[in-house]
Target: Long-chain-fatty-acid--CoA ligase FadD13
Amino acid sequence: MGFVITNHLCDLMPGTTQADASIVVAPLSHGAGIHQLVNTARSVKTIMPRSAGFNGDEIWSLIERWSVTNVFTVPTIVNLLIDDEAVDTYDRSSLRYIIYAGAPMYREDQKRALKKLGPVLVQYFGLGEVTGNITVLPPSLHAAEDGPDVKVGTCGFERTAMQVSIQNEKGGMVKSGETGEIAVCGPAVFAGYYNNDEANAKAFRNGWFLTGDLGHLDDEGFLFITGRASDMYISGGSNVYPREIEEKILQHPAVDEVAIVGVPDPKWGEVGIAVCTANTAIDADALLAWMDGKVSRYKMPKTVQFWPELPKSAYGKITKKLIKAQLVEQGVIPSAQKDTAS
Model:
């Protein structure tokens, strides 16, 4: 934990001192709890909102009152904060670091946040098993506009003293740009799952911890996450990674959120279903027509559904397991698939 705290201070919020202030806007049972230990190590004051749930006006008013400098949160809560009208009511000039993790942040959401808040976003990729320490994308590498030098979709480079590799199914290192499983080693990696030899045998290989996430490294060592291995589906013999398609769909101005899941199909083996929330009326045919030409034909979702909201975990992450469960209830997925949904 001493290493983790030092690592967070080096990579996520350098220059933090007792003059800083932090506000809690995410459950302390997860990464936010680690973040508060980091603040405590530097005698940073922590502000706890009174509201039991999200209250944008309260959060922004406390940021002004206490001159809050750092926040740990997840992309869903970042979106709620910038969409709340109170964001323009209170002074937020003290903010230096809004650190987000726990789920990928879609590019369109990044742009909105940067245009509203300025260069304060810090992304990190990590898991509980490595106490949040894998990669970092600092404020200087977040860009509000796309350009030839902007690495769209990256979650950053290796954290201090941590190592990342992309491996094939046999444990071999794949070439730059090739997709494989993301593996990590270093001082933040846990010793193993308690009293669970079977889980440890699956999680560790040749000294590397296997994250279960898929991705690739570019020539400069920046990591790009394709998605969870369990999210990938095979359509017509080709691997389909939903995140790439979700990024495209979110570029449509009517779409607020989207999750794509693979479901059985008698012809193609599996096909994708896109489940969206929308801010204005749009039908499935119109969205699919708009998508035509933006992704390869085999990657196109077969159908689109619009729901009032997408199910989320207590930590604010869209939960595809619950989406699949609802599709089972609708009869879209055979009930036998329910137990294997992930």
